[in-house]
């Protein structure tokens, strides 16, 4: 069974991007090549600052949505805290 990861990137302009993947290394490379998302394409380079892994796809999608609802200064703590 595939496991999924919810991740937060910090962009060059200090904004955050939240996403899910089943291969974080490949996804980060794709982001930094400017091919992963329209949002990060103009804000390169990006770096991973928080990760929550070992999730099902459904869990990851729900968690990603909840993280995106948080204010910027709460996103990392929310992602890393108990769910």
Textual characterization of the structure:
The protein has one domain: GIY-YIG endonuclease. The model has no long low-confidence stretch (mean pLDDT 96). Strand 1 and strand 2 form a beta hairpin. The protein contains four helices and three strands; from the N terminus they run E-E-H-H-E-H-H. A three-stranded antiparallel β-sheet has the order 2-1-3, sandwiched between helices. The longest helix has 13 residues, at 57-69. It starts with a strand and ends with a helix. By secondary structure, the chain is an alpha+beta fold. It has helices at 24-32, 38-41, 57-69, 72-80; strands spanning 4-10, 16-21, 47-55. Helix 3 (57-69) runs antiparallel to helix 4 (72-80).
Task: List the main descriptive attributes of the protein structure presented here.
83 residues; GIY-YIG endonuclease; 3 strands; 42% helix
Mean pLDDT: 96
CATH superfamily: GIY-YIG endonuclease
Secondary-structure element string: EEHHEHH
Question: Count of helical segments?
Answer: 4
What CATH calls the topology is: GIY-YIG endonuclease
Secondary structural class: alpha+beta
Largest beta sheet: what is the strand line-up? 2-1-3
